[in-house]
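Throughout our pipeline, every protein is held as a single compact record rather than as scattered files. Such a record has a labelled line for the sequence and another for the backbone structure tokens. The remainder of this section carries one protein's record, kept here as part of the documentation:
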Amino acid sequence: MLIIGLTGSIGMGKSKAAAHFRELGIGVFDADAEVHRVYEGPVLPLIEATFPGTVVNGRVDRARLTAALGKNAGGFQTLEAIIHPLVREASWNFVQAEHAEGARFAVLEIPLLFETRGDQTVDAVIVVSADATTQRARVLQRPGMTDEKLATMLSRQLSDADKRAKADFVVDTSGPVTDTYGQIDHILQQLTLRPAVAFQRYWTRNEA
């Protein structure tokens, strides 16, 4: 089984790319969705104790959490120490299940793939990218998003240029979605010739 890392900055089109993989019958692990599930799970008391006032009606209020993190210099590292092990366990279970089912490909959709060194545990990395104007327009359509919030989010990530430089493949999502899908189809054709070594190297023991 060949393991693909799918990443890219906010507003670059990861969700649309992931949707196409699913349409093709390829399993996708969505790290962001897993974080949302974690935010409604057993770590709630720990998050509330660490960031008081951020849990409302049995779930993390992301706006309040963002505000709390902005006031705490080490807050992001602390939060990651709480959340990351759980997300990592979920990704481990996903990869094991896909392998057990005899999947040809498995996709890990992880926004901070490079930042968390996840690129070292996959066979190939696909980065979705678009020009800065398109990215900004997409992101500012999201409820509650501002230029300031976007700038803060981007400051915590590798730049788009750096991600493109580190990628095995880059998908330009600036055009019609059919163009995006066509690029992905072409990449998958190329990946059929690539050796699948990541599972044996990184996913045969719970150390990924």
In short: The CA atoms of residues 42 and 64 lie 19 Å apart. The chain has a mean pLDDT of 92. Residues 1-26+103-203 form a domain with the Rossmann fold fold (CATH 3.40.50.300). The chain is about 50% helix and 15% strand.
